[in-house]
Amino acid sequence: MSFRDLGKFDPVIWGKSYPEIGRPITANGLANSGVNSPLFHAVDAFIGMHQTSDEDELFRQQRIRRLAVLPALVRQFIEALAEPEHSVRSYVNNGRVSPCAAAAFDALVHSYIWLLEKHRIRAIGTVSIASASGRVTTAGGAQLETSSLYFSQRLNAQMMQSMASRLATRPRSMAATLVSRSPIGRRAIAVTLHFPCLLPIRAGDRVLVWPTADEDACTREECLFDGANGDPTPTTPTTPAILPVRPRHYSVSKVTQGNGRLAQQVTLSVADSEGMSVRFLRERPVGQSIRIRASPAPHFWPPAEPQTPLLLLGQGAGVGPFLGFLTERRASPTVGAIILILAARTIGDVPYLSDLEVLSQTLPLTVGLALSRDKCRILTQGAIAHQSRIMRAQDLLLHLQEDTQSLLRQGAHVYVCGSVDFGRSMRTALFTHWYLQEDRYHEECHGRATVSETRESFTLLDLAQHNQPSTIWIALGGVIYDLTPFRGTHPGGIKPLIEIAGMEADDRFRQVHSGDDAQGVIAQLSLYAIGTIEKRSMSSRLRSILRDIVDCQNVLTNNTWFASDRPVPFFVIAESLLVTSRSIARIQRGATTNNNSLTAPEDLQPIFQELKTECWTFLRDYMDISLDQKEKQVFAFYSSHWDEFHGLLQKLKHSLGSAKGDELGWLNMVFIEMIHQGFRGIRQSVERSVAALRQRLAKQRLLCLMRERSFYSNTCP
Q1: pLDDT band at 344 (very low <50, low <70, confident <90, very high)
Q2: Has residue 489 been placed in a domain?
Q3: Strand intervals (E) in 286-382
Q4: Are 588 and 692 members of one domain?
Q5: What is the spatial order of strands in the sheet that 413-419 belongs to?
Q6: Quick one: 323 and 291 in the same domain?
Q7: Are 293 and 313 contained in the same domain?
Q8: Where would I find the FAD-binding FR-type domain in this sequence (predicted)?
Q9: Which of 17, 216, 511, 585 would you call most buried, defined as having the most Cβ atoms within 10 angstroms of its Cβ?
Q10: CA 516 to CA 209: how far, in whole Å?
Q11: pLDDT band at residue 355 under the 50/70/90 scheme
Q12: In this model, does residue 522 exceed pLDDT 80?
């Protein structure tokens, strides 16, 4: 499922329509969801989760729900898997299996943790947005009000602890043997690793390599932030000797298969540099072990149908996975057209040049070599044609415009692999000159980006003004990023970006992107840096109030902004006005030091309840138009009041810039009065909406009565 398209998945609609607790599977009912599904329970039992030293709270809640709601046969099956005498974990821990079998068990646990990590990232964004709309628990058991922490922090802490519990006594990496190391061009090396067991790896997947022979350095907690207690502050000293060693990701180029199409060894393409990981791979003696972990990259797998055309864009060693794609396609009888554009300095720097020449003789393959220090060349059917000028990769892409356009019209998938700067230039060229569906664009770019000097300084008020779907700024570590161009390609969709728009988002960023699989995220973000924050212009009290206002407005936007072509049932938006008014009331309570009840804002709950009741009555009883039309009209009523709340919140944001002198006095008088005036205006507006709905219903009832009387007068003698 794509999380980018709100027409397919919207976290607010999901939160309002999906059951809060998993239920037994029935013919007409929804299945269990999240980590509370029977599949997760079965895997936990198989790997011996119940034998870990400390059962964490989330797992305990899931076990209670399993006993309460799962069918008896499913429970019995899971309990049989968990019997201690049949536990795979205890069998492996006691040393009763071969090293190969132990490695296979570790690989299974690593794959399971990878799946749970993907689930964690999705769950944090989705459930946080859903909980802000009124959902109070997840299917896995995380509760909204069991802690003073934000719901997302509570959920993140529970899921991180659960993943650590599942690893328990097993290592976080495995030992692969360095088989060979050879140059591929002048600026890259090919490194071949032999696995201790067969692994389900294919070209395009990642292998995490730790640049150390010390197993303890790999098994230390790899996150610099304490995920177990939800505290985003560093918990490990910053002495380099005891910091955890972070792995480097490398994409798989070639796969040597063992039995059952599983990989026995792989070849990685490594750009030659002076980085720690590259030096380690370059200097490690052949035959020695290297700590690694496999990491699937399903977003970068080639299409299953070999007839699908491909447009491959690589930079230097980034051509590696494409070599694997082409090798796989050579085994198919019918293959779609392929264009590969490879950026390098000179012809001597092109990795796998001889392999590409051979592949071009057996595949419908055109290879464009974009050389920055020599004239570019085109390779087809094993022959190289010299071009008349030097061209960058994006220029060569336009030079082959007709062929590229033909491939895209045939539904080609586009793959980009290289540095972050290379990915940015390719993405810009593609989406500027051609129409390309997002689900056909695949990118795997890492490394440092070239960032221009950002001298402009912005205030927190400047940042706070950019929290709308049309303009999204966030701040991380004092740097402001304009993520507006990232809206359409963000893997989690636009709503997680809206949730943190206009504010300092360090805590949320650490929650989501603190793991090893987040390599390259900071480098990707650096492309969007536009300036720095000037904090001294606002006191800590006003900064806190401003953050609460922006957060309230972001929740309102997410709760009320949907895909234009997606129908929105009324129950999804029914509580949105009340949720917003309560948030503003909390902002006032936090801003004022006056506990006088006269300063409390007007309670809008009664009038919002009247509006909701009249809307339900209108949807049920009004018969002159279709249900779809009625829902649109109700949506229009609510939309006008959402705009009024947005106007009030914008006014409150702007007002903070005028707070001078007696700050507390200004908050107790001016700021509070603005909220009171806003609430009075909204109440009057909602009263008019209620009256309009009642008037329409009364007119329809009168017309129905008149029709009924006319019918009886015409039919009765």
Answers
A1: very high
A2: no
A3: 289-295, 310-315, 338-344, 365-371, 377-380
A4: yes
A5: 383-386, 377-380, 365-371, 338-344, 310-315, 413-419, 441-446
A6: no
A7: no
A8: 171-303
A9: 511
A10: 11
A11: very high
A12: no
Q: What is the pLDDT of residue 491?
A: 72
Whether 255 and 386 map to the same domain: the answer is: no
More confident: 707 or 258: 258
**488 domain residue, yes or no:** no
Does residue 415 sit in the same domain as residue 287? no
pLDDT for residue 118: 82
CA 589/CA 548 separation, integer angstroms: 12
Looking at the structure of the chain, the number of domains it has is 4
Q: Which one has a higher pLDDT value, 237 or 143?
A: 143
Average pLDDT over residues 218-231: 39
Please write the tens of the pLDDT for every residue from 643-692: 999 999 999 999 988 877 678 888 888 898 999 999 999 999 999 999 99
Among the candidates 395, 421, 446, a domain finishes at 446
pLDDT bucket at 312, cuts 50 / 70 / 90: very high
CATH of the domain at 377: 3.40.50.80
Which residues, at least 6 apart from 532, have a Cβ–Cβ distance to it below 8 Å?
454, 456, 457, 458, 478, 479, 480
Helix (H) or strand (E) holding 107: helix 99-132
Same domain, 273 and 385: no
Cα-based distances in Å from 561 to 152, 189, 645: 21, 49, 14
Strand order in the sheet with 529-534: 457-459, 529-534, 479-482, 471-476, 467-468
Q: How many Å apart are CA 535 and CA 459, to the nearest integer?
A: 6
656: left (phi over 0), alpha (psi -120 to 50) or beta: alpha
Same domain, 141 and 286: no
Question: Model confidence at 699, in pLDDT bands (50, 70, 90)?
Answer: confident
Mean pLDDT of 52-75: 67
Distance CA 507, CA 156 (A): 11
- Is 353 found in the same domain as 292? no
Report, in angstroms and rounded to the nearest whole number, the Rg of the chain calculated over CA atoms: 30
Domain residues for the domain of 78 are 11-167
Position 223 in a domain:
yes
Cα–Cα dist 212/218, whole Å: 8
Amino acid at 167: L
Closest by CA to 314, choosing from 336, 348, 339, 347, is 339
- Has residue 238 been placed in a domain? yes
The mean pLDDT value for 85-98 works out to 80
Whole-model pTM over 0.85: no
Could you say which of 167, 185, 200 is where a domain stops? 167
Q: What CATH number has the domain bearing residue 239?
A: 2.40.30.10
3-class DSSP assignment, residue 587: helix
- Given a cut of 50, is residue 564 above it in pLDDT? yes
Q: Token match 């049932």: residue?
A: 569
State both tokens at 476.
């991380």
DSSP output for 690-712: HHHHHHHHHHHHHHHHHHHHHHH
CA angle 290, 291, 294 (to 5 degrees): 115
